[in-house]
Design a protein that fits this description.
Layout: H1 14-22, H2 40-49, H3 51-81, H4 85-94, H5 97-112, H6 115-131, H7 145-170, H8 176-205, H9 207-226, H10 243-256, H11 258-264, H12 266-270, H13 276-286, H14 295-320, H15 324-345, H16 351-379, H17 382-412, H18 417-438, H19 444-448
């Protein structure tokens, strides 16, 4: 279990919080660096020794794999039944916008009720909802995809803040970067495998088998999470005051702690290139179609995206280490790499070259994602952590939804996939340059503890 300062500890104050994060390993002198042990064996040893994180990781693995099976199936189904890109954009927005609206309230739940129970309930609810998608191919019932996905996303909005809030409680502080790198690698690997396998299963076995696999994955996830031994912090309980006050208190905390807010809005900035969720299926179908309903090429684009997000944080951590200074200063450049991948995509003449630059772009994006998550986990106190991550999720999904909506409208207006790639790439450069400046600003903590300051 991770060690946390007592509630009476003065380090709960903002400046004290900075120092607490700086000295991430007990007994280390200020300014000392964590010994670099970043081989692949380190990841295996960590999973072997930490059974609670391992079970949480197992649950994440199986549910993510199932998610990509139903994503490929739904994308292919909608592209086959509709000639408008707005129909596909509508699906992606249904997967995003409800989360932006529900996440702040879900964060309150994560700070008021047992987080483990919330995660299990979310998995069981999603398993039930996914079974309703079996009726979508029937004549006149395609519309049910949208309300089901909205409810599914609301459940996910409860799950994710709770999961992110649990990790620092079951992982030692100095292993936080490693744990989040594993989570990111898993998300990416399941994207790569799920995209590829989902396309193959849809092509060979059809829509219904893909949906049943997704429903089963949530049941298996709930079983693994039930095995996690998580001690609920004393402050995470039902309070006498209402949830609205909890919500307001969470936003006040962010407003008063600028360093935490800066980490919380990184994904918001990156979300403005979220139109790739519509761009990639369109690119696959119109530019490089392969397989029935372009399901194989859609799967290949997802696989390339997954490979990039898998290797990005591992490579960055291997070469740069775990210091807070390095984590912060990597965010802007990595977002620039993400935008460069989109700009290059617009000029690629073959599928394999397109897949290569998609991999490159998501290599950069994943570094910004993982490093901002780690910084946010370490900088936010446990009693606010659920609401902080819920606010981050809400901002990110809102930016994604806006990007997806505009991308779908422009495609219907006659923009080609290559033109859309150029536009998204240029859009991503703006927040990339902003965070390059913000995260490199000097501070007195950097001067005192250059290797460990977060």
């Amino acid at each position: 279990m991770g060690s946390h300062p007592s509630r009476t500890d003065k380090t709960r104050r903002s400046r004290g919080s900075h120092h607490r994060i700086s000295c991430s390993m007990k007994g280390m002198a200020p300014g000392a660096t964590i010994p670099p042990k970043r081989g692949l064996g380190e990841y295996r040893t960590f999973l072997k020794q930490n059974a609670d994180f391992r079970n949480l990781w197992y649950g994440q693995t199986v549910s993510l794999l199932g998610d990509w099976f139903d994503s490929v199936a739904l994308y292919a189904l909608i592209l086959d039944r509709s000639t408008s890109s707005s129909a596909l954009a509508g699906l992606v927005i249904a997967q995003l916008l409800p989360g932006a609206l529900a996440a702040p309230f879900a964060g309150v739940l994560a700070d008021r009720f047992p987080r483990k129970t919330l995660m299990i309930a979310s998995d069981l609810a999603r398993a039930t909802l996914v079974l309703g998608l079996l009726a979508a191919p029937l004549q006149g019932l395609l519309w049910i995809v949208y309300p089901i996905m909205i409810l599914k996303v609301v459940c996910a909005s409860v799950f994710e803040p709770a999961r992110n809030a649990v990790i620092p409680s079951i992982v030692k502080r100095e292993r936080n970067v490693l744990a989040n790198t594993i989570s990111s690698f898993t998300w990416s690997t399941m994207l790569a495998m799920g995209g590829l396998l989902g396309g193959a299963v849809f092509a060979l076995a059809g829509y219904h088998v893909s949906i049943l696999i997704d429903a089963g994955s949530f049941l298996l996830s709930a079983w693994f999470i039930k095995k996690v031994r998580y001690q609920q912090p004393a402050h995470v309980k039902l309070h006498n005051h209402g949830p609205l006050k909890d919500l307001v208190d969470g936003f006040r905390y962010l407003a008063r702690h600028g360093h935490v807010l800066s980490y919380a809005v990184v994904k918001f900035g990156h979300g403005f290139v979220g139109g790739t969720m519509v761009l990639y299926p369109i690119f696959a179908k119109q530019v490089f179609p392969l397989g029935r309903g372009a399901a194989v090429s859609i799967g290949l684009f997802m696989t390339a995206r997954g490979i990039g997000t898998a290797v990005g944080p591992i490579l960055a951590r291997y070469f740069g280490g775990d210091s807070g200074r390095f984590l912060r200063r990597s965010i802007g450049p990595s977002m620039m790499v993400s935008s460069a991948g989109l700009l290059l995509l617009g000029a690629m003449p073959s599928m394999w070259m397109a897949l290569a630059v998609v991999t490159l772009g998501h290599l950069g994006g994943s570094i910004a994602w993982v490093f901002s998550t780690v910084l946010l986990q370490l900088a936010s106190p446990d009693e606010f952590r659920g609401r902080v991550f819920a606010a981050e999720l809400a901002l990110f999904t809102l930016a994604m939804a806006v990007s997806v909506f505009i991308t779908g409208l422009l495609e219907d207006a006659g923009w080609t996939p290559r033109q859309l790639a150029y536009l998204l790439g240029l859009t991503g450069l703006l927040p990339a340059m902003f965070f390059y400046w913000v995260m490199r600003r000097p501070s007195h903590e950097d001067e005192e503890h250059p290797a460990t300051r977060v």
